[in-house]
Amino acid sequence: MPVHRSGVTRLHVYTAVAAVLFGLFSLPGAAAADEPSPGTPPRGSAHMGMGVIAHDGQDGVPTRRSTQTEGVDVSSHQGDVAWGTLWSSGVKWAYVKATEGTYYTNPYHPQQYNGSYDVGMIRGSYHFATPDTSSGAAQADYFVDRGGAWSADGRTLPGAVDMEWNPYGDDCYGKSQSAMVHWIGDFLDQYRARTGRDAVIYTSASWWKLCTGDYAGFASAHPLWVARYASTVGELPAGWGTYTMWQYTSSGPTVGDHNRFNGTLDRLRDLALG
């Protein structure tokens, strides 16, 4: 059967379009949108402060003050921790990563959480928030059910929610400032409903300003744990006139990030008791 000229023309056009599309999808960087970009850490590996030093840097270490109490925070990166050594060095409290999103639980949490308690420390758990993966309430439930609960034993601190730079993508997890404030409020409300305590908020002034618009509405109820790697704490997020805890370095003399509680050990016990 003879082929009409119009059919041949259409065939050539289709072939050319297919070739162009093939070339585009073969280019570097044309991977599926849900695939992580090169250099992105695996989900679950995030820990307190990993974005702070990348965005804010580190400049000096503060002078030790007698009215402040030394602490550390740890995650799976530290593995089994020698808590006796930390206690002997002057560390009296610790926060341990329990969960991330609704997809990750720290496998070292039992050793780290119970081990710190066993040597005499006041301890608590923290949750690395990923607001782009599930709701605040869902993540609060996941956290409480997997190590983030609170008990009135005088040695357990209220859970902390880690709100910081997204190590897996967009700094603000793809959320507008108002949507981020709503997400955080959702987490905090559910945590209080489940435990009877107001969660600690961990963040940096720079991230808080960028991603919440420097929202001041949580300051009256929630203790601030501020991250700033410098010789002074510097600017605080809006609403807080002072900080409760300060993560001042990611490269301390012993394991984990180092922190100061803004008060004596007796005041830290008061926070644990609620």
The H-and-E topology, N to C, reads as HHEHEEHEHEHEHEEEH
Give the class from helix and strand content and strand pairing: alpha/beta
Radius of gyration: 24 Å
- The fraction of residues assigned to DSSP E strands is 15-25%
Oligomer description: single chain
Number of strands: 9
What's the overall average pLDDT, rounded? 85
- Name of the top-level CATH class: Alpha Beta
N-end to C-end Cα span: 89 Å
User: Spatial order of the strands in the main sheet?
Assistant: 1-2-4-5-6-7-8-9
CATH architecture term:
Alpha-Beta Barrel
Notes on the protein architecture:
- The chain is built from 8 helices and 9 strands.
- The chain is α/β, with parallel strands linked by helices.
- The protein has one domain: Alpha-Beta Barrel (TIM Barrel).
- The longest helix has 22 residues, at 5-26.
- It starts with a helix and ends with a helix.
- Belongs to the glycosyl hydrolase 25 family.
- Its EC number is 3.2.1.17.
What keywords describe this structure?
274 residues; alpha/beta; TIM Barrel; eight-stranded mixed beta barrel; 16% strand; disordered N terminus
Topology:
Blueprint lengths: L4 H22 L25 H5 L12 E6 L8 H6 L4 E8 L3 E2 L3 H10 L3 E7 L7 H13 L11 E3 L14 H19 L4 E4 L1 H8 L11 E4 L17 E5 L7 E5 L3 H9 L1
Parallel strand pairs: 1-2, 2-4, 4-5, 5-6, 6-7, 7-8
Antiparallel strand pairs: 1-9, 2-3, 8-9
Enzyme class: hydrolase
Catalytic activity: Hydrolysis of (1->4)-beta-linkages between N-acetylmuramic acid and N-acetyl-D-glucosamine residues in a peptidoglycan and between N-acetyl-D-glucosamine residues in chitodextrins
EC number: 3.2.1.17
